[in-house]
Amino acid sequence: MLEKGDNKEYLPIEGLAAFNKATAELLLGADNPVIKQGLVATIQSLSGTGSLRLAAAFIQRYFPEAKVIISSPTWGNHKNIFNDARVPWSEYRYYDPKTVGLDFEGMIADIEAAPEGSFVLLHGCAHNPTGIDPTPEQWEKIADVIQEKKHMPFFDVAYQGFASGSLDEDAFSVRLFVKRGMEVFVAQSYSKNLGLYSERIGAINVVCSAPDIADRVKSQLKRLARPMYSNPPIHGARIVANVVGDPTMFGEWKQEMEEMAGRIKNVRQKLYDSLSAKDQSGKDWSFILRQIGMFSYTGLNKAQSDNMTDKWHVYMTKDGRISLAGLSLAKCDYLADAIIDSFHN
Ligand code: PMP
Fold first, then answer.
1. 47 lines ligand 1 (CB under 6 A)
2. pTM as predicted
3. Which of 29, 89, 221, 259 has the fewest CB atoms within 10 Å, i.e. is most exposed?
4. Residues 142-197: tens digit of each pLDDT
C-alpha cells in the first residue's frame, strides 16, 4: 500500500467499495444468489460494535415499536448498545448451568413468546461468553420459529473463520437463514479473524426481499451514519480488500486461521484430558469439547472464580469464562488442578 502511494482521502459514507464487495462475499459466499440479485445492502461501519450500533439506530428509527431479544448471557456490550440507541430489549434463555450447555427448549419458548416482529439477536458462531453454539438441526428449528413469528434475525458475526478454522463453516447459520429467503441483519467484525482490532473494520449487511428495498435500506443507513461518524476508516478496509483480492495472501490468511482454530481445539482436548484424569469425582467434563471458539464457560461461579485468582493466580472473568487463546498446552495440567480445587472446595 505504501509502494502504491495510497492516500488517506475520505471514503464515501458507505465505505470502500472493494471492501463492501469482499465482506458480503465472505459472509454469504461469492455465488450466493442474493448478491447477484442485488438484495444485500452493505455499509462499512466501525467494526462489530459500530455496525451493531448503526443497526440499532436503524431499528429505533424505522421499527419504533419493535424490541430486541438477546441471549442470556451475552457479550456485555450488547445491552449498552441497545440502551444507548433507546431500543428496548429483553433476554431469551440460552445457557443451562446444569449441563453447561444450551437451554434449547428455553430458547425456543422465549423466542416464540416474544411479540411478533421482534429482532432476535443471534451469535453467528462461537457464542461469547459461553462458547456454546446450536447444532445445525437446532439452527433449523430456531429459523422455523423466527419465520413463524415474523421476527427479524439479527446476527452478530465477530468470529468468522476463527471458530472452526473455515470461513464457510462459520457462516453456516447466517447462510441457512438467507437460503430460506428471509430478511436478515448481519454485523461483521474483522478484529479477531484478521487481527484488525484497532483499525475498527466491519460492516452491517441487510439482506432484503427486493433490490429496491436494499437500495432504500442502504440509503437510510447512510443517512444514519453521516451525522454519527461521517465516514469509516480506509486503512484496514484496504487491508481486507487486498488480502481477499490476492490469491496468495487470501490462502495464507485462511491457513493461519485454521492453525489458530486448530491450536485452540488442541488446548481444549488437553484440558479435557487433564481434568478427566485428575478429577476423582466422576464429573463429566465433555462440555469443554463441545464448546467452540476462543472462550470456554467453565461453569465456575463467582466464589469459585475468586478461588482461581486468589489461590492459583488464574485470572478470568467472574462469570466463569476463560480465554483459551491465552492458554498453552504446557499449562493445561496446572489449570486443571486449579479448576478441580475450585470446584470441589
Ligand atoms: N460481538 C461480539 C460477540 C464480540 O465478542 C465482539 C468483540 N469482543 C464484538 C462484537 C465487537 O468487536 P469489535 O467492535 O472490535 O469488532
1. yes
2. 0.96
3. 259
4. 999 999 999 999 999 999 999 999 999 999 999 999 999 999 999 999 999 999 99
Does the beta carbon of 49 sit less than 6 angstroms from any atom of ligand 1?
yes
Can you read off the three cell numbers belonging to residue 15?
465505505
Is residue 253 annotated as part of the catalytic site, yes or no?
Answer: no
Rounded CA-CA distance 272/101 in Å is: 16
Rounded to two decimals, the ipTM of the complex is: 0.99
- Looking up cell 491465552 gives 326
pLDDT digits (tens, 9 = 90+) for 285-311: 999 999 999 999 999 999 999 999 999
E runs forming strands in 35-168: 40-46, 68-72, 89-93, 95-96, 101-102, 119-123, 152-157
Mark whether 310 is an active-site residue: no
Which residue from 44, 46, 49 has its CB within 8 A of the most atoms of ligand 1, so it is best to mutate? 49
pLDDT at 345: 75
Residue nearest to atom 11 of ligand 1 (CA): 48
Yes or no: say if 237 and 302 are a contact pair by the CB < 8 Å rule. Answer: no
Q: Which of 75, 89, 253, 285 is catalytic?
A: 75
